[in-house]
Amino acid sequence: MSVLSFWRRKPHPPASGRRLLVPFTGGELDPVVLDAAIRIARAEEATLVPAYLIVTPLEFGLDAPMQKQVELAVPLLEAVEHAALRAGLPVDARVEAGRTPIHALQRLWEVERFDRILVPAPVGRDGGFTPKELQWILVHAPSETIILRPDPTLSEGLRLARTLDAA
Amino acid sequence: MAPGVGKTYRMLQEGRQAREERRDVVIGYLEPHDRPDTLALAEGLEEVPRLRTAHGGLELEEMDVDAVITRHPALALVDELAHTNAEGMRNAKRYEDIEEILEAGIDVISTVNVQHLESLNDAIFELTGVRVRETFPDRVLDDADEVVLVDLSPEELRDRLRAGKVYPKAQIKVALENFFRKDNLEALRELVLREVAEDVEARRQPSVLEPFSKQAVAERILALIEPQPKSQRILRRAWRSSQRLGAEIDAIWVRPRGYEPSEEEATQLAALRRLASVLGIHLLEIDGDDLVAAVREVATERGSTYIFVGTPDESRRREIFGGSLLSRMVRELPGLDIRVIADRAQKKAPA
Predict the structure, then answer these.
(1) Which of A110, B68, B130, B247 has its CA 20 to 30 A from that of B95?
(2) Structural domain boundaries of chain B?
(3) Phi and psi (nearest 5°) for B177?
(4) Record: fold of A16-166
(5) What is the pLDDT of residues B248-262, one digit of tens each?
(6) Gap from A64 CA to chain B (nearest CA, Å)
(7) What pTM, to 2 d.p., does this model score?
(8) B236 with A97: Cβ contact below 8 A
(9) Each residue of B202-233: pLDDT tens digit?
(10) Mutate which: B231, B274, B279, B332, vs A, most A CBs within 10 A
(11) What interface predicted TM-score (ipTM) does this complex get?
């Protein structure tokens, strides 16, 4: 009996096998967007694929380690993964690099299949996708795409509640 | 580390200690910088007369290499290894003088600031904005039998500077605001500590150590992955730990011989490769039918000290009849720490 055999076992895929991509960048993911993504994935029995998009400057190769951005991405992905798993959702997180967030996103959907893409729109803050990028995504995304702009007051309220929870 | 930390003083202490041990010690060259403590410590130690040379209307003094070799002591103390000799000297650099003395069978103790090391020249420039002109090749330090770090905290060094123990009064203010800024000194100190740590590690004798702990001082993580979503988390956890430990990370997938990954596994593997590259992890894929044996081989070759493994999803039956993978790893990988990364997906979701 080989001890190796159990390393080969595939994970249990969700019943539907559907995959919901939630790309984000700029060091944060709005909690309202995350809650919406979890609700949608749960309703569709889909795997949630949170993907942090890293921007690699031209002077570096696309496969170069990006320490500063990874320092933002890793804890954020851990938190997103934790929230999804608490809700009983399978998660398959990604970190993807590109010259721009759009380039990174394009590289990701060129090699992986997603049934739906949920893109957070910024709520009056820096970071995240720009209106131009959102427009590009709407035109070029290979799957059904939702751009979710959360209610700013709800976003702030949820963030405050989480801060108080954490305290 | 930097001017004023007490390198010359320490060199003289070593010289005096050697003389007390009845070794024949001379000063080949001393740069006392008019520091009274240093001059006092040099008293009583024989100094080989220096060469005097005229250059641009100035009279300069250099070490007389031939005189030191002719005197042939057991130990010569030679200050400022990175010094550039005056024109007309046989060697352009003092480290070349030192090499001649060593070749003559004389031991040498010398002093140098970290910023003169050739390989650190660019890093020093980026950190301090100062381009150091007098450099020496790294091999000189590599060839030394022993490297001693003369360390002083940045604040202590600045205190010494303020007290006039390093430079004359007129230069103190400028020095404090430029090269001797606290952030500069902190960066230099970090550089020199790393350099000396690497030097110490390179000098360790692996033959006397356990095969699994050849590089035990520097942690090196080995993450065991497989083409599954949970491996993303294993790599991320390994990366986070590596940040605390200052460790390099390798990751391996041991692919059973002849095994062809499914389309889903190929996708997962590609995603893991991309994650590994942005995290700076070396991802290895090796063929093998015995996972533990393959891990042992890689761990030995890479000098791994810490294994990260996901929760094995082995059945109870397999565990009983085939033995638990983790028990086997603990048994067959002595000297390696093993950390099991929980599979959060196995946690029950709240109802």
Answers:
(1) B130
(2) 7-203, 211-346
(3) -90, -10
(4) Rossmann fold (3.40.50)
(5) 999 999 999 988 999
(6) 6
(7) 0.54
(8) no
(9) 665 554 445 444 444 578 999 999 999 999 99
(10) B274
(11) 0.74
